[in-house]
Write a structure and sequence with these properties.
The protein is mainly α. It is 94% helix and 0% strand. It contains two helices and no strands. The longest helix is centred in the last third of the chain and has 79 residues. It is rod-shaped, with a radius of gyration of 33 Å. The two termini are 44 Å apart.
């Protein structure tokens, strides 16, 4: 039972490490995505500046606003995806923990049954010895 508990703790520790690594990778990915998006916006803005002689100031402001709205929408979509992933991971983690608890309970029950059988065996041996002694 102690070995199972140690294995369970080791599993939970590994799961925690994996979650921390996952979160760190997701944070790095989010920073890279943000930087890429900023560079794309900057690139588009530079293209707009290059063609500014063909457009009015109002047109440029409208396009910048649209790009900012697109960026906000992407940020919202990314946040939803990350929240879904986190919820899915938590659900899987909860399922695994529940399975481990069930297994642990079964092992405890089995251990209790074995202890009871051992006790009954000792009683039976004692009784057999007493009967054997009486017969002799």
């Amino acid at each position: 039972l102690e070995k199972l508990r140690a294995m369970r703790q080791k599993f939970l520790d590994r799961e925690q490490e994996r979650e921390e690594e996952y979160q760190a990778m997701e944070a790095d990915r989010a920073k890279m995505d943000e930087r890429i998006m900023d560079l794309e916006i900057h690139n588009r803005e530079m293209e707009l500046v290059g063609h500014a002689h063909k457009q009015t100031i109002r047109d440029l402001e409208a396009q910048v606003q649209r790009l900012q709205e697109e960026k906000e929408m992407r940020d919202e979509e990314r946040a939803e995806i990350e929240a879904d992933r986190a919820a899915e991971w938590r659900h899987k983690h909860d399922d695994v923990c529940e399975q481990l608890q069930t297994i642990t309970k079964r092992l405890e029950d089995t251990q209790n049954q074995l202890q009871e059988r051992d006790r009954q065996t000792v009683e039976l041996e004692s009784h057999v010895n007493a009967v054997t002694n009486q017969l002799e």
